[in-house]
Amino acid sequence: MSILLGVDTGGTYTDAVLLDDTRQQVIAASKALTTRPDLAQGIGAAIDAVLNAGNGVSPGDIGLVSLSTTLATNALVEGQGARVALVLIGFDTSQRSRARLAEALAGDPLIELAGGHGHAGDEAAPLDLPALEAALDALPEGITGLAVAASFATRNPAHENAARDLIRARTGLPVTCSHELSAALGGPRRALTALLNARLITLIDRLITACETHLARRAISAPLMVVRGDGALVSAAMVREKPIETILSGPAASVAGASWLTGEQLALIADIGGTTTDVCLLRDGRPAIDPEGARVGGFRTMVEAVAMRTTGLGGDSAVQVLDGLQTALQLGPRRMMPVALAATLHPDLVHRALDDALSRDPAPEDAARFAIALFTALPPGLPARESALAERLLAGPQRLSTLLRTRIEAPALTRLVAGGHVLLAGVTPSDAAHVLGRQSDWDAEAARKALTLMARRRSGSGTRLAADAAQIARAIIDQLTRQTVDCLLEAAFAEDAPDWQAPPEVLARHELLHAGLTPRPGLVAIRAHLATPVIALGASAGSYYGAVAARLGTRLVVPNHASVANAVGAVVGQVAMHAEGTVTSPAPGRFIAHLAAGPAAFGSPEHAIAALDSDLRAQAAEKAVRAGVVDPQLRLERKDTTAEIEGQPMFIESHLRLIATGRPRIASE
Prior knowledge:
Layout: E1 3-9, E2 13-20, E3 25-33, H1 39-52, E4 62-69, H2 71-77, E5 84-89, H3 93-96, H4 101-105, E6 110-113, H5 129-137, E7 145-150, H6 158-171, E8 175-177, H7 187-217, E9 224-227, E10 233-235, H8 236-241, H9 249-262, E11 266-272, E12 277-283, E13 286-287, E14 295-296, E15 299-300, E16 308-311, E17 317-322, E18 328-335, E19 337-338, H10 339-345, H11 347-358, E20 370-373, H12 384-393, E21 398-399, H13 400-403, H14 409-418, E22 422-426, H15 429-435, H16 444-456, H17 469-496, H18 504-507, H19 511-517, E23 534-537, H20 541-552, E24 556-557, H21 565-569, E25 575-587, E26 590-595, E27 598-602, H22 605-626, E28 633-645, E29 648-662
Parallel strand pairs: 1-4, 4-9, 5-6, 5-7, 7-8, 11-23, 19-22, 23-24
Antiparallel strand pairs: 1-2, 2-3, 9-10, 11-12, 12-13, 12-16, 14-15, 17-18, 20-21, 20-22, 25-26, 25-29, 26-27, 28-29
């Protein structure tokens, strides 16, 4: 009997499942709170709980452990991550302005150097290493890694490699090279992808270390795999180098889990977590891969991933009251710790603050908001104002009104939240669900008090937002339903993709469509519904998605183990590694194979393609073996580009992609 252990670490919960690979059935499942800053506590609690429920399964019976996570996705959606520097080589001003590089940098250092290569891999200008040395010496404190992107590095990586070697020797920091993440052209997007990868290294390293530490403590010696964004498995060691590949890891695992748990062939999968809602189309039992690269947090990367639409909407989304004469609510995209959970963890502080606010009229607007440190020691390199706030939080969580002593400290707190150092607690849909009796995980009385305070707030017309906590709770759940319906409709319109005259997000909110979803009497009869079932996943799926499916007029599927579908999906996939490259012809009779070691010239396209094929086969097989496959199977994909000149075919370019696949090694094997 081969026992597989799947673990999924999300923003709120860490899930674990034991799966019998021979019988293809779930043996046991468990959930534990994700614990930050010490992720090992939550991972350990989930693993211990599932082993205790495992009907006699011992640590020695486990042949494979696989991990999926939404932490990378959440960090990008919320604009969080470590401080890094970006090194651009050979880029001009127009290129720097593309792919939203400046926005992604968010004030982190940018080092610009002369150098880079041309389309054929020839050096465009010498690499200015002395300038790089000077810039490295001038970097501010707190930089955790660097990203390097050079012009046409996928055609010749020499300058990226030289910069990487110098940076590692001079700083000892991890370095991400753009050509190691994608073989495609498009320098600005490769630079963006490398930057985001560098920003995630510390976060994902902590996650993997936490998992490895507890596995060793429980004497589980099975190989540890991680789910990539395309649903394939890869070794933990490789993910440490390329954490960007774990964006959409959790959603990809949920798609695999949904397919395995339901057997559905055509459906929209909606996975609601604490921070995001992820929607993906399952067609012929498989998800599509996004041909343009994963889009997360508004950034279009070059990471291969399932075609998933990720929205900052979840059970822990912040509830915002919009100004105006009428009551209007908006959920997300920022995540908060629910007040009910904060009260479970810090009961005296939360209840004392809520009771004090309830005794006042009017109550302070931030009465139900708290700041909670995600660190146990002062983070290095913080500016003065952020450092002062962090020092106060070392004593424990605080009400915002107590923590912030002047108005100018509010932006400093926002920066601490964006940097992943502090988590705010406040009213969320999870609190509303506790008030309405749909959830009972945490402190429902604290949720009731917080929503009572929100109900007492007054709109622009001077009236209270709601009569009581239950009424405002229903309004919050109704708003969650509306925004979820919009998410699903956007995904459906995007997948239909006829020649619409408006983008999916506009079509999904069109008044005629919503008139059809809620038919009413009139001279014009409009009827609309979603023509595919919805598979709902996530711990709170059963609480929210009944109303969503009813609104869309479609069939709802909530499978057994829907709350741990990500953890199931983490262990039912296989390894798939690839290597790709291009043969170009910059001049008649000259054919360049762009190999891993650099460009090589040949006199015929056949010889150049054969050399590239051999190089890519070796790369793909080596990657698959490193990823844990004993005997990888290789598959070639080839795309040739030609043109007809005076009736004769002319070679332009040939692109090769070698894919190595296989099941990961099981410890008992």
